[in-house]
Write a structure and sequence with these properties.
By secondary structure, the protein is an alpha+beta fold. The chain has six helices and 17 strands. Strands 1, 2, 3, 4, 5, 6, 7, 10 and 17 form a nine-stranded antiparallel sheet that branches. Strands 8-9 form a two-stranded antiparallel sheet. This is Angiopoietin like 5.
């Protein structure tokens, strides 16, 4: 662009020089012989026009060449950028293929400053000074070697609830290994399982005891709940056996079920790769012989007791299949049939909380 402007300036200067020369020549002739008819310098004029035409042609050619060179430079830059993007995408794909197959939605352990021991403790301490909204908080329970993030419900029934499981849309798969159920998985802002180790540390603090609230929503938008006035888990060596207190609510006590063999209270947690369900060697379920309750429930994890009548980690919204493989709380019935469950949450809170 600068070269084009410079050429234009030279051409304009040349034109002004020729006009000046023409005018000076004219006055010189008039001064020498004012009686003689003056004849214009045609040769000079023709030379001027020829030079002007040649200059314009040269200027046009140089401008065209400059524009072509600029376009070639831009195309070269675009080609270079395209090659860089392709190379970057190839590296990303290579990294993805090299990464371990462990699910990416398993919760990480991050070293951060905690807000309290659990959501009840946060409500007690921070809530005494300012309003504590529901949301994500960092807790560090007694006995845990690291802090971790949890979802706290601070408005529901007085607040202070730590949510340990939540299912709404069926986006997060609960068909998981023992390792996944240990550490937790999912999205705390959506669907998740907090993790057996984290639940254990929360419920086994020396200065607190906890209650459990199970909230259920049916596919036709009706609600029910089951509450237990105490809740805690044994340690990993005992496969996180569940311990429940007295039941209250309108959904029925599915943890204990209708029969002794349905009772899941005091039973260990079980997955398809860590079978603790008590089917030795087989369980009889709806006139079927079942070797593994987790496998029968499509590889989901729960406190199975010969399968029982509760599994809130079952496959979300199973249709045209046996209800046994879905989200189950079979003591919640309508027209003598178990209600089809759309969403569920499990949350715990300190029992002394007011």
């Amino acid at each position: 662009i600068l070269s084009a402007s410079f050429c234009g300036l030279l051409l304009l200067s040349y034109c002004l020089f020729c006009i000046h020369y023409f005018v000076v020549g004219y006055h010189q002739v008039m001064a020498d012989s004012w009686l003689t008819a003056w004849a214009p310098p045609w040769a000079l004029l023709c030379s001027f026009l020829g030079n002007l035409q040649s200059s314009l042609v040269q200027y046009a050619r140089s401008t065209k060449k400059m524009i072509r060179n600029m376009m070639d430079d831009h195309q070269s830059s675009l080609d270079y950028l395209s090659n860089q993007v392709n190379e970057l995408m190839s590296r990303v794909m290579q990294l993805n293929s090299d990464m371990p197959r462990k699910p990416s939605d398993v919760f990480p352990h991050r070293a951060v400053q905690s807000h309290g021991l659990d959501c009840s403790d946060i409500k007690d301490t921070i809530g005494s000074v300012t309003k504590t909204p529901s949301g994500l908080y960092i807790i560090h329970p007694e006995g845990s070697s690291y802090p971790y993030e949890v979802l706290c419900e601070m408005d529901f029934r007085g607040g202070g609830w730590t949510v340990i499981q939540k299912r709404t849309e069926g986006i997060i798969e609960f068909q998981r290994t023992w390792s996944d159920y240990l550490d937790g998985f999912g999205d705390l802002s959506g669907e998740f399982w907090l993790g057996l180790r984290k639940i254990f540390h929360i419920t086994n603090q020396k200065t607190a005891s906890f209650m459990l609230f199970v909230g259920l929503e049916s596919e036709d938008d009706t609600y029910a709940y089951a509450s237990y006035d105490s809740f805690w888990l044994e340690d990993e060596a005992c496969s996180f056996k569940i311990h429940l207190g007295r039941y209250s609510g309108n959904a029925g006590d599915a943890f204990r079920g209708y029969r002794q063999e349905d009772n899941q209270n005091t039973l260990p947690f079980s997955t398809f790769d860590m079978d603790n369900d008590g089917c030795n060697p087989l369980c009889s379920l709806q006139e079927q012989l079942v070797k593994s309750c987790s496998n029968f429930s499509q590889q989901t994890g729960w406190w199975f007791s010969q399968c029982g009548v509760a599994n809130l980690n079952g496959v979300h919204r199973v249709t045209r299949k046996m209800l046994t493989t879905g989200i189950r709380w079979d003591t919640w019935t309508m027209n003598d049939q178990p209600v089809k469950i759309k969403s569920v949450s499990m949350k715990i809170r300190r029992t002394y909380f007011r």
